[in-house]
Amino acid sequence: MRRHLVTALLVLGVVALFAVPLLLGGESDYAGSDSQATELIEDSGYQPWFESVFSPGSSEIESGLFALQAAVGGGVLGYVLGRLRGRRTAEQAAGRRSPTDQP
Question: Whole-prediction pTM value?
Answer without folding.
Answer: 0.47
